[in-house]
Amino acid sequence: MEEIKPKRKASNSHNGQAAGDRSTTHRAPRAEKNQQNNNAPRKPRRRPGHQVAAADTASASQSVPAPRSRRSRGPQGQNNATAANKTQTRRGRKQQARGYEMTPAIPMHICPLGGLGEVGKNITLYECQGDMILVDCGLVFPDADMFGVDLVIPDFTYVLENKDKIKGLFITHGHEDHIGSLPYLLKKFNVPIYAARLTIGLIKNKLEEHGLASSAIFHEIRPRQKVKLGCFTVEPIHVNHSIPDALAFAIECPAGIVIHTGDFKVDYTPLSGDAVTDLSTIAEYGRKGVLALLADSTNAERPGFTATEQTVAEGVRRLFVRARNRRIIVATFASNIYRVQQIIDLAIESGRKVAVSGRSMVSNTEMARELGYLHAPDNVLIDIDEINKYPPEKVVLITTGSQGEPLSALSRMAQASHRQVKVGPNDFIIISARPIPGNEKTVTKVVNGLLSLGAEVIYENMYDTHVSGHACQEEQKLMLTLAHPQYFLPVHGEFKQLKRHAETAEHLGYIPKQNIYIAENGQNIRLSVDGMTVENTVTAGAVMVDGYGVGDVGNVVLRDRHHLSEDGIIIVTAAVDGSNGQVLSGPDIVSRGFVYVRESEELMDGLRTQVEMALDRSLSDNMHDWASVKARVREALSSYIYRRTKRSPMILPILLEV
What we know:
Elements: H1 13-22, H2 33-39, H3 54-61, H4 80-88, E1 108-114, E2 123-128, E3 131-135, E4 151-154, H5 157-161, E5 166-170, H6 176-179, H7 182-186, E6 193-195, H8 197-208, E7 218-220, E8 227-229, E9 232-238, E10 247-253, E11 256-260, H9 279-288, E12 290-296, H10 309-323, E13 327-331, H11 337-349, E14 353-357, H12 359-371, E15 395-399, H13 409-414, E16 427-431, H14 440-452, E17 456-458, H15 473-483, E18 485-491, H16 495-508, E19 523-528, E20 531-537, E21 542-546, E22 549-553, H17 555-567, E23 569-576, E24 583-592, H18 601-620, H19 626-645, E25 650-657
Parallel strand pairs: 3-5, 5-6, 6-7, 11-12, 12-18, 13-15, 13-16, 14-15, 16-17, 23-25
Antiparallel strand pairs: 1-2, 1-19, 2-3, 4-21, 8-9, 9-10, 10-11, 19-20, 21-22, 23-24
């Protein structure tokens, strides 16, 4: 068998001799490797470039060839042949290529189906390796131009298309913009719900109205208790908000860690029973490495910090003193258990009884007492029917209607239509909430109604009666700094708020601008450590709820309602002989929302004349296509009405063929 000669050449004759002596002990070919190496001791490898003493160098030169110094690496692709030859001189090692391809990182997908470019309707879908989870399922209240619409919910088409892959739905907290659409989703897909204790209670109250409470699947979760679903491991993290049991989620999957904050703020002096936002856990994940952060942007335009809830307690206490001998009525959100507890505590301090009004307020306070989130002695709470048995200075009434909802208890009080409560000069009313954008006019209407009845009303920013539950800029910076994400996606806000939050993140300096993205509803975002791209778009939008109808009111119906609201409708009826087209009766004109007929007889006569002329022209043209005849009548009336009134009512011709 041929021996393998060493590739390195000796620098002198002495070294050559030493090399020749070693040739007999050199390792044999690979087939006899194990037998040869068992007897030959290994020599330690000396790193090139290290300095050695002169005596050691002399002795080493007799046994080991002098190492060559490493050459600096040139540009990629340069001296590839030389590099390949050098690799072969290493005895007993496999050849390694200088340039090799990295294995692509595992991706995940984030698909916001609501909550971007709007305040409300929050729902986000996460996908990795075929497994999916949802976070939140909220609604938004209709805009002023959505006539007759009760609620607006997300489009669940993409969720239903992938319901076999969805492992569960995680809820951050119990506000309507995060749980309000659950009944409409559960009617089509009974997905398991993971939420905190109070949140589950609020959801059950809502589902009972739809007959779904008994069939829903609930799993109670707590902060720091991880939940594993498919390839996802979700850890709830406690955060401060205007409702107890608010959570953020650390979502861990093979692609990395995503932190979804939900609604949050950092309250360093929270009310008793609550704790400060768990910043240490967020920082711990930041040290591990966070792939992406999705954070609340509601207050991104407000500098500084959000005020503590303790501010409200002091402000309302001063107002209780100011009320003196008057009855106190406080309007707030039915889900704001913190605020309700504050009012009950102040009522006890001032020796007053407490009653609640409004269906959601009654059900939520009962549920919160049962679960231990609301503490009120039985001798303090009274039924609303009993409030007139006590003098005004001994009563506090907590009610719904802080946003001016038309059917709320406070709105009915302002209209003097509430059955149990008649507002007058002996009432001191506190609206302990800030109007949601879009509700300012309805709130103002309620305030005007209450003032006209003689009551004193404290509203908006007159006193410290409300603080936000959302983080301002400094708290957002703190969250960004602790999480230190590779990518940042601002969520939960209108576009101007998302934009400002993105600018805040960019100004911090350690998240590259290209790693900050303002997404849109329906974008399917592919995310990995290698990069972020929008892969495609999925079905996402707004579904309008009108009474029992879900989705049957679309843009066409809204356009017709808008048209009717502006100019009204004209209905034209006539009976026509089907054989010859002669008018047998009519035409009759019916006006609704256009003009008062009794005061516009001349206009009505002109309309009848125009209809008769249009029908006569159709008959003379031998036109028996009734759709074309109706179009001719509509055009004639539209032109005549606009010339006379500069209005464009909806015109509906009805021709009865006999």
